Amino acid sequence: MNDAPPRRKFRREGEERRRQDLIEATLDCVAEYGLEGATVRAIARRAGVTAGLIRHYFPNKEELLQATYATIVGRMTEQAKAALAMDNASPRRRLAAFVEANLTPPVIDARIFSLWAGFIGRATHDPALAAAHRVGYLGFRDELEALVAEVLAAEDQVADKAQTRAHAIAINGILDGLWIEGCLADDLFGPRELAGIAISTVEALLRLKPEREETP
Amino acid sequence: MNDAPPRRKFRREGEERRRQDLIEATLDCVAEYGLEGATVRAIARRAGVTAGLIRHYFPNKEELLQATYATIVGRMTEQAKAALAMDNASPRRRLAAFVEANLTPPVIDARIFSLWAGFIGRATHDPALAAAHRVGYLGFRDELEALVAEVLAAEDQVADKAQTRAHAIAINGILDGLWIEGCLADDLFGPRELAGIAISTVEALLRLKPEREETP
DNA sequence: ACGCTATTTATACACTTGCATAACAACGCC
DNA sequence: GGCGTTGTTATGCAAGTGTATAAATAGCGT
Fold this sequence. Notes:
Distance between the termini of chain A: 90 Å
Number of helices of chain A: 9
Low-confidence stretches of chain A: none
Largest sheet of chain A: none
Structural class of chain A: mainly alpha
Helix content of chain A: 55-70%
Oligomer: homodimer
Largest interface: A-B, 49 and 49 residues
């Protein structure tokens, strides 16, 4: 008569490890089924735990989603900044590396895009998200603006402040736009085609000399 | 003892009219609460009908959403193409007008963006939406490619096919990227600033002569 | 003026969702 | 090795979801 189902075995994990696992599971779910498919049960199944556990690490689902969003934003900016760290290279090369880093995997990634779209769509109604986006955007643009100023200085161009700002806005737009297309339809482009197009465009915008003229 | 609630009065509408009303109501709901807020009941309430009626015009909710998406895609491309209709102007001016049309109201609009974001997030996993996006994108890009070819021809530049394609991809990216920023944070930019930046960038990309040189 | 029929309402159903709670067991500590 | 802490499971619930179905009525053809 003992038809009581055997209780599931489990292991205790470290707090940080579990949180990270849950976030990763959320990313997987969003990638596969979209934001709407990222239910607590689906996430838990993916993470190999039961649904209730989520509430033990996050006060509610919303916070898990925000933590997930913060994770990918951090991951992306980290990738981009890594490209800036090449201190020995010329400003022009660093700009090119920066552009390329933003338009190749792992930044070009359908999973990330799916999550980004889900969140950014909410930014219109959710002031907190709108503010988060703004901070990230302006930070990114400032970085870009500094880089542009360096490049122009190295090329002996007058770096008008307004002009530099405009350039940064434009480059940021190019990166955003091509990033989207790359995430949505990478099969339409060659492996490094988007990066190449972006670099050409940026160099034309900054009126850099067209070809290899590093050492006159 | 007659506590039977009085049945709601209603009017019969023409089929096409009702379908359009339901689509419009869906647009409102998505714009206001996001895709997740566009439930059949919310949509029906918005349209001033009861939920069951939706199923009388659409076999299921999914089809209503697809019809809605098709509607906004059509509306956006229609707006953009209208700017191309200035037949008497020079290719260069028409390109500038096209760019400007895509980066000023009513194309720059938080509501439209909200809709776009909601749907595009699904396009990663929903094949039907992905296909819809792709035809829209490629159609837009083809239009752009033809325009670029005209401009280059008028400027006596050799119009390499691959180069023209690359230019169109780049311009499309610029438009997308700046469109997003404009929709999300129009207060960060002057009224026509984004359009101006985009036009400058495009002209630099196509290596057009910098200033007013229309009549040498 | 009166039915006919298709549009519209009303109600119900099966299912999913996020969240709350209680029982349980893995693991560190003495 | 027993024990307490707490990470983890199991179960339940109320609200909301899309959909199915039947009843009602608006408005047209006659």
